[in-house]
Amino acid sequence: MKVLKQFLAAVSVLAILASPATAAELRFTIWTGNEAHLRMLNGFANSFKAARPDVTVKFETIPPDAYTQKLTIQIAGGNPPDAGWLMEDAAPTFASAGVLEDLASTLNSTKDYDFADFSKPALGLWTAGSKVFGVPFSTSPFVIFFNKDMFDKAGLEDPIALAAKGQWDMTRFQDVAKKLAAANGKYGFEFKDGQGYDSRIMHALMPPIRAYGGDLWANRQCGLDTPQAVGAVKQLHDMVFKDKSIAPPGESADYFSGNAAMTINQISRASLMPKAGFKWGIAPLPAGPAGESPVIGQAGIVVFAAGKQKKLAAEFVAHMTDKANVATAAQFFPPARNSVLSGAGFLGSNNLIPAEQMKFVADAIAKGKVLPSHEKSPQILAAMKPRVDALWRADANVENSLRAVCAAIRPLL
Amino acid sequence: MGNPAPSTAARARRASWLTLKAREAMEAWLFVSPTVAGFLIFFAGPLVAVVWYSLTEWNLLTQQMKYVGLANFRDALFENPDFWHVVRNSAVFAVGLVPFNMMLALTLALGLSGRFPGVIFFRTVFFAPVVTSAAAWAIVWKFLLQGESGFVNQLLATVGIAGPNWLREPDWAMAAVIFTRVIKMVGLNMILYIAALQAIPRDYEEAARLEGATNWQVFRWITWPLLGPTTLVIMVITTIGSFKVFDHIYLMTGGGPENGTLVLAFYIYEQGFKFFNVGYASALALIMFAIVMVLTVVQLAIRRRDT
């Protein structure tokens, strides 16, 4: 009996030592599972321990395609993460549903945080009056990734050289894509992640439409049936079905595996390039009749109102988005802090992309516009999808198809 | 013999209501209670909850719930044009899948119910897709059915046929998902038919053959009628399965192109988990339940009439 008592006492002491009553764990959801990204994020968690040694941050990866949906189910199921990444198309829906915590007081009371340093346009999606529902963490413009080897084989000037001469426009883009396809026996261009006809409709259509001076929607009006949008989409349609230079619906032609000469993406995907096995570079999006019209994809960091450690989570968000950490994150996720963006450090922040090419990214952030979003984004995209499918038939009437898209989404706008 | 007789003096008097029958009943309930608890918590409870949810407008994200009576049902049945399109797609899927699946399963079973060298190998080959991961199956077929560069179209090109863009043209996409679903699930029905065929007494066939019956006559007048109960079971479970199909559609077409493969189960998922309209999704789920129930009762009634 005495031995048993001694054993139980020892176990109790060990249990108390192993779980200090003050320890806290923050759960943070994120879309990326990339090792380099996670290493950097875990670095932020470790440095947070300097101020809060009792706090551990656990990053939980949810794949991007199901990210918003799984996050919603976690919130609805009473198991919300404390904080997380939120994409631009979900921000208005979440903010209007009241599930995001106002971070203003924490950010304003954090020493040396300097909230005014964030670019005002970049904050548009994340603020309402004096309330701050999220902090932009990635203000990442779309750029053209190109396979230099394929350009060389086709004897063509690459997009960087063309842009330097002011000749990198939609007409030249079409011409170059066609010649690349003919010379290499691969597609000249692939939409973002090969998903331009499915989950990346916006990323496929928006850049050319903005280059032509149009928009998908603005001020609750559908813009797809305007002459600018029709002209832009007609050109894309010709590239897919007449020139056969863009990978068509139902075909996979992965740029990162060397099966397409160009693609459109963001610099976070540069982490895939070391394994690609070919020479490459990034260039601005081709200009159009409306001149240069960079398109920006954005994501922010938010705290969930239903979380049990909101104050602590807000402190971590403030830490994660302070000047030093935003400068570190800039190598993958372009910043919205003016001081980081204008500093020389940003251009040299990505060890895969040379400073002269990072300049395209900085210019695009300065001049670009974020993708359109709406509190009914899921419904709008679902209403668009079948009508956009009809657009991607070889014999489709582009103008009529785009009118049908507008008719479908107008009641939702 | 040296052991003392057990004393009954210390035993508590049994309550008068605790008869042997009652005690046995209590024990029986005790034994089945884990299953009953599981049934109530994971089946009956959600079923009752779905009925309640269907009468509400409940946004999953905002967690706001409002009682709306039968408005969700009215909207689905009379106001939402997508609903009937989706029901039509589900019907096309079932009409395409059920007969094709059953005919193929019966043909395979007739060929593989005997005993000959290699029969186990062939049965395994046809049954293997049933136990293959649905995700892996759908993704592999998605690649095989790509446009010009897809394996199927490359194969067709060798004999001079220009195959369609299978998963990007609405009619072909439906045909493609039906075909790949049948190939995946036919092994299960094949096994059921083989078991039924092997249970048919050989005497009937031998007697018929002595009377000069042909192979077709033996099948038509002996084998087929005796397979009736199995055919009914297969028809019911395949029909229910075809209306419930979700994973295959989700992975291969996402309901597209042009909503051409948007079936009821997938539409319910979209309403519930993409648009977070849980009340509306619940009403749709109950409508689907009613459709499947009616079809099952009709099949049972037809079978009863025929026997």
What's the gist of this structure?
The complex is a heterodimer of chains A (413) and B (307). Chain A has 413 residues and is of the alpha/beta class. Chain A contains 18 helices and 14 strands.
Tell me what the structure shows.
The complex is a heterodimer of chains A (413) and B (307). With 413 residues, chain A is an alpha/beta fold. Chain A folds into two domains: 21-140 and 297-370, Periplasmic binding protein-like II (D-Maltodextrin-Binding Protein, domain 2, 3-Layer(aba) Sandwich), CATH 3.40.190; 143-293 and 376-412, Periplasmic binding protein-like II (D-Maltodextrin-Binding Protein, domain 2). Chain A has 18 helices and 14 strands. Chain A has helices spanning 2-18, 35-48, 67-76, 91-97, 104-109, 120-123, 148-154, 159-164, 170-184, 201-211, 227-241, 310-320, 323-329, 338-342, 344-347, 355-367, 377-391, 398-409, and strands at residues 24-30, 55-61, 83-87, 127-128, 131-132, 135-141, 143-147, 187-190, 217-218, 221-222, 260-265, 280-283, 295-303, 369-370. The model of chain A has no long low-confidence stretch (mean pLDDT 91). With 307 residues, chain B is an all-alpha fold. Chain B folds into two domains: 20-67, no CATH class; 81-306, MetI-like (MetI-like fold, Orthogonal Bundle). A two-stranded antiparallel sheet of chain B has the order 1-2. In chain B, helix 3 packs antiparallel against helix 10 (228-243). Chain A binds chain B through residues 69, 72-73, 75-76, 93-94, 97-99, 197-198, 248-252, 378-379, 382, 385-387, 389-390, 392-393, and chain B through 59-63, 143, 145-150, 165-169, 254, 256-259, 262, 270, 273-276.
| CATH superfamily label of the largest domain in chain B | MetI-like
User: CA-to-CA gap between the ends of chain B?
Assistant: 65 Å
Strand segment count of chain B: 2
Order of helices and strands of chain B: HEEHHHHHHHHHHHH
Roughly how many Å is the radius of gyration of chain A? 24 Å
- Strand content of chain A is 15-25%
**What is the largest interface, and how many residues per chain?**
A-B, 27 and 28 residues
Enter the CATH topology name of the largest domain in chain B: MetI-like fold
Shape of chain B: globular
* Major sheet: arrangement of strands of chain B: 1-2
Mean pLDDT of chain B: 90
What portion of residues of chain B belong to β-strands?
under 5%
The second-level CATH architecture of the largest domain in chain A is 3-Layer(aba) Sandwich
By CATH reckoning, the class of the largest domain in chain A would read Alpha Beta
Number of β-strand runs of chain A:
14
